[in-house]
């Protein structure tokens, strides 16, 4: 619902000015800038932690976050913000990455927490959460997609570069939704820890995937998929 026609009230169109006024109002509602979305999967963490607070990054995970932070800084882009999942492993990854991007504000959100976005098709035998989890997590992750992944606001004058630090399931679902692929196929994608996925959203709403799960900046012995 971000097409210009969806943002104006056609009933208020003046009969006197007609098409000229409509064209002017449509132009005022058109996006001008491109949004660059960098989706970062958190680094390796301790899988044996009982509660979220115990699932902290491993020493290797901290190294991975450092490498990801250096990679993002090396791009020479003016990042606008880092939005991250409120889970411990994503928060710790963000803190390490942000050291390489001084001055970039950080925002925590529950919307990006890990979960089960939608039942995968075809199903898999090694991962079968309770059906209720799809309803609870799926609605939240879909809300994250609608809230964060869209064309620029008409008021945005310059291109933006935003970082989202979250989780594999969330990123895979977002990529499928953004590219208009069947979201049930999300589990067919694989993402390494600390990887970078780059989506580009043009002013007309078209989306392109520039990189998916890139870890080419990491030495082979530092790459994991836990």
UniProtKB/TrEMBL annotation:
- Enumerate the catalysed reactions: O-phospho-L-seryl-[protein] + H2O = L-seryl-[protein] + phosphate; O-phospho-L-threonyl-[protein] + H2O = L-threonyl-[protein] + phosphate
Question: What keywords were assigned to this record?
Answer: Hydrolase, Membrane, Mitochondrion, Mitochondrion outer membrane, Necrosis
What's a Gene Ontology MF term here? protein serine/threonine phosphatase activity
Q: What is its EC number?
A: 3.1.3.16
Name the major location: mitochondrion
A single GO BP annotation from the record? programmed cell death
**GO CC annotation terms, alphabetical:** mitochondrial outer membrane
Q: Which branch of life, at top level?
A: Eukaryota
**By its UniProt entry, which Gene3D superfamilies does this protein fall under?**
Phosphoglycerate mutase-like (3.40.50.1240)
Q: Where in the cell is it found?
A: Mitochondrion outer membrane
Top enzyme category:
hydrolase
- One Pfam family for this entry, by name? His_Phos_1
Say which family it is in: Belongs to the phosphoglycerate mutase family. BPG-dependent PGAM subfamily.
Q: What is this protein called?
A: Serine/threonine-protein phosphatase PGAM5, mitochondrial
Q: Which gene encodes it?
A: Pgam5
